[in-house]
């Protein structure tokens, strides 16, 4: 295939409810979308999962816009591309910038599968026609408000509850959640808010029987996580530390984690996500799909990735209505009463992109 046009769009989408982590509180998302068009007129869509500030990682909306516009798009445009799996190699000489790279890479996977008239998830090698869903609940203004959020999600059928934790919102909160909700599948996501000085706290929190602690220590660390894992029973899950299959291998070999979170943007797209999944699966390490407050386009790509064999734990992929009053895809992502999402059989990402909705939300646009 040959990409004849790349359209970059920035949209602003207000969240249904604010989302707070140890990084801060988010009320709306500023999202870059990429539409790639082939010479035959077929199109594909990708989403940049970078945040509005460089808090989760070094990339952010404005940095990704510049890299996509000035560097990555010209590397892809009018090049002969044998397959979507080759796109990563076309951008390989640019270091880092994985979220920016993923924006174009995932769009071309969508394009390719539309040309082939097959669902993206099947083309990726997915084996699960339904995926188990969990939810991520941010830090709330009170524990009572957290209880209300958890009850709402349990009533909706979600199979796993993830709550954000931070030094002001950890032991006592988890204790009260366990007392109130009993033996639900529960995990704590720290977003790198702690250090090895907090080992005793994590030992105490072992009593809550959590599924995992997600990225408790530094965002770029493996070594200290291995020390922590040796001291506690609860599995450590690495998120921010894993950017590639090589990172996954090193983390597994050093004993830094027992679970890995895979995010398309963080690893650079579907091709590398598949390699991370394979590395983890071959070492009996379960993986699951993490969320970045994606719109429907990013959510659709997450659904496709989550059908791979190694994704055995409920991910953060949830219904559109949890985050958006009105999504940019049709139909919106919905969760069954069993707490699952059914992988679509339509070609590509499996959802129609609502261009009129995107145009209404657009604050910046360029065609290359």
Can you walk me through this structure?
The protein is α/β, with parallel strands linked by helices. It folds into 2 domains: 128 residues, 2-Layer Sandwich (Enolase-like, domain 1), CATH 3.30.390.10; 221 residues, TIM Barrel. The chain is 35% helix and 22% strand. It has a 7-stranded parallel sheet. The protein has a 4-stranded antiparallel sheet with strand order 3-2-1-15, with helices on both faces. Strands 4-13 form a two-stranded antiparallel ribbon. α5 links the parallel β5 and β6. It is globular. The chain starts with a strand and ends with a strand. The model has no long low-confidence stretch (mean pLDDT 95).
Describe the structure concisely.
The protein is α/β, with parallel strands linked by helices and 368 residues long. The protein is built from 13 helices and 15 strands.
Structural features:
about 375 residues; alpha/beta; Enolase-like, domain 1; TIM Barrel; 2 domains; four-stranded antiparallel β-sheet
The average pLDDT is 95
The quaternary organization reads as single chain
What's the shape? globular
Count every helix, treating DSSP H or I runs of 4 or more residues as helices.
13
Question: By CATH's scheme, which homologous superfamily of the largest domain applies?
Answer: Enolase-like C-terminal domain
- Report the structural category: alpha/beta
Write the CATH fold name of the largest domain. Answer: TIM Barrel
Radius of gyration: 20 Å
Strand adjacency order, main sheet: 5-6-7-8-9-10-11
Main beta sheet strand tally, sense and closure? 7 strands, parallel
Count of extended strands: 15
Q: Ends: how far apart?
A: 17 Å
Low-pLDDT stretches are: none
Q: At CATH's second level, what is the architecture of the largest domain?
A: Alpha-Beta Barrel
* Order of H and E elements: EEEHHHHEEHEHEHEHEHEHHEHEEEHE
Q: Give the % helix.
A: 25-40%
- Number of separate structural domains: 2
Question: Which percent band covers the strand fraction?
Answer: 15-25%
- CATH C-level class of the largest domain: Alpha Beta
């Amino acid at each position: 295939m040959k990409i004849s046009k790349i359209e970059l769009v920035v949209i602003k989408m207000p969240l249904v409810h604010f989302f707070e982590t140890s990084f801060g509180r988010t009320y709306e998302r500023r999202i870059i979308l990429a539409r790639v068009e082939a010479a035959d007129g077929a199109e594909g869509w990708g989403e940049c999962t970078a945040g509005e500030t460089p808090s989760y990682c070094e990339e952010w909306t404005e940095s990704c816009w510049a890299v996509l516009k000035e560097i990555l798009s010209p590397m892809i445009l009018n090049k002969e591309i044998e397959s979507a799996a080759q796109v990563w190699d076309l951008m390989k000489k640019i270091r880092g910038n994985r979220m920016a790279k993923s924006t174009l890479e995932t769009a071309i996977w969508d394009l390719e599968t539309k040309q082939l008239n097959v669902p993206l998830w099947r083309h990726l090698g997915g084996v699960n026609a339904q995926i188990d869903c969990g939810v991520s609940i941010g830090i709330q203004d009170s524990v009572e408000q957290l209880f209300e959020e958890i009850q709402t999600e349990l009533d909706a059928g979600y199979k796993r509850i993830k709550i954000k934790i931070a030094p002001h919102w950890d032991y006592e909160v988890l204790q009260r959640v366990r007392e109130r909700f009993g033996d639900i599948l529960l995990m704590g996501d720290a977003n790198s808010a702690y250090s090895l000085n907090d080992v005793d706290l994590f030992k105490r929190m072992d009593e809550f029987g959590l599924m995992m602690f997600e990225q408790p220590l530094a965002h770029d660390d493996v070594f200290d996580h291995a020390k922590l894992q040796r001291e506690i029973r609860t599995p450590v899950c690495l998120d921010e530390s894993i950017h590639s299959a090589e990172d996954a291998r090193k983390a597994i070999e050093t004993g830094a984690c027992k679970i890995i979170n895979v995010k398309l943007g963080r690893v650079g797209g579907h091709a590398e996500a598949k390699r991370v999944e394979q590395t983890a699966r071959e070492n009996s390490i379960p993986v699951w799909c993490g969320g970045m407050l994606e719109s429907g386009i990013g959510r659709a790509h997450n659904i496709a990735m989550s059908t791979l064999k190694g994704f055995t734990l409920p991910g953060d992929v949830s219904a559109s209505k949890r985050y958006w009053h009105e999504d940019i895809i049709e139909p919106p992502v919905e969760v069954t009463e069993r707490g699952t999402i059914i992988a679509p059989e339509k070609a590509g990402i499996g959802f129609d992109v609502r261009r009129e909705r995107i145009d209404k939300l657009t604050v910046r646009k360029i065609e290359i």
